[in-house]
Design brief:
alpha/beta, two-stranded antiparallel sheet, 13 helices, binds ligand C2E, binds calcium ion, EAL domain-containing protein
Length: 279
């Protein structure tokens, strides 16, 4: 690691990792702002399209949380979600995001899917499935349209709990996607033991495909594996046409990424839906 030597006095030299102090400060600020937050009014949802290139149709949208804090400004989900998990506030955030997502989605054509992310802590919350079923009723949305996205990290922390929770979502009619597959603690035993319907191929693979032969072989094998296991495979992080073409050659047909669209505000979804229908 890069280290700075900072001289406090003639005899005292302290080493610390570059950026570490900033990190601690920003975590503390974020934690404070989160605990002050009037959540639901500071949180927004964005939606990113999921595209079926074989049928040239819009599959649906993934919901992505956005937080605008009046004290510290915009904080990306990669920063505030892990902190919210440690303070326990994530349970409230998840519920609020679900509510906002379903409220926006109730105006969409009812063949469109709605992707919702859940965290490791949400899995331990007994009420999450019932809460979501209730929200579906309230907004007149068929639970079959919901896809729950869970990361490997969430599954590893409590494997038995994850299985029970995912089964309950499935009993309610919802689908399950393994998110970020190929990043982090990938284990093929997830594919064997979790009740999955889809796998989302992590963007790090997708983005290495043009330059890295090994990456391409791994992506190819994972796509084939999904096919054998009858799991849908969604490639994430498509930024240019060459990545799309490569992945199509490998047999992948479902995609998400800036190449199709960046995440958008709820009121931008209708014109995207209309444009997609005209293609
Ligand atoms: P994720 O679930 O893997 O979401 C995809 C992330 O990739 C999003 O980042 C999206 O904006 C970004 N992305 C999409 N297309 C591209 C592309 O072509 N290139 C690149 N470089 N990036 C692309 P975002 O919105 O910052 O979210 C980051 C992560 O935060 C999400 O990763 C997810 O793990 C978490 N997250 C977001 N919203 C929620 C939520 O409501 N609940 C929970 N538990 N986690 C959330
Ligand atoms: Ca079409
Ligand atoms: Ca996701
Ligand atoms: Ca992902």
């Amino acid at each position: 690691a890069l280290c700075h030597a900072k001289q406090f006095s003639r005899s005292e030299i302290v080493f610390f990792e570059e950026g570490h102090a900033d990190y601690i400060l920003s975590t503390a600020r974020t934690t404070k702002a989160l605990s002050d937050a009037d959540f639901c009014s500071e949180l927004l949802v964005n939606f990113q399209p999921v595209w079926d290139s074989k049928h040239q149709t819009l599959v649906g949208f993934e919901t992505l949380a956005r937080w605008h804090s009046p004290t510290i400004g915009n904080v990306p989900p990669n920063e505030f979600i892990p902190i919210a998990e440690t303070t326990g506030i994530i349970t409230k955030i998840t519920k609020c995001i679900f509510e906002k997502a379903l409220r926006a989605a109730k105006d969409w054509p009812n063949h469109l899917k709605i992707g919702l992310n859940i965290s490791a802590v949400d899995i331990l919350n007994q009420d999450i499935v019932d809460d979501l079923v209730h929200l579906c009723k309230k907004h007149d949305i068929d639970p079959k349209r919901i896809t729950i996205e869970i990361t490997e990290t969430a599954a590893i922390q409590n494997f038995e709990g994850a299985i029970a929770c995912l089964k309950a979502f499935k009993e309610a009619g919802m689908s399950i996607a393994m998110d970020d597959f190929g990043a982090g603690h990938s284990s093929l035993s997830y594919l064997q033991h979790l009740p999955l319907d889809h796998v989302k191929l992590d963007k790090s693979f997708v983005q290495s495909i043009g330059s890295d032969t090994r990456g391409r072989h791994i992506a190819s094998t994972l796509i084939d594996l999904c096919k054998s296991l009858q799991l849908g495979c969604i490639a994430e992080g498509i930024e240019d046409r060459s990545q799309l073409v490569e992945l199509q050659k490998l047999g992948c047909t479902t995609f998400q990424g800036y190449f199709f669209s960046k995440p958008m505000l709820p009121d931008q979804t209708q014109s995207f839906i209309d444009a997609a229908a005209e293609e």
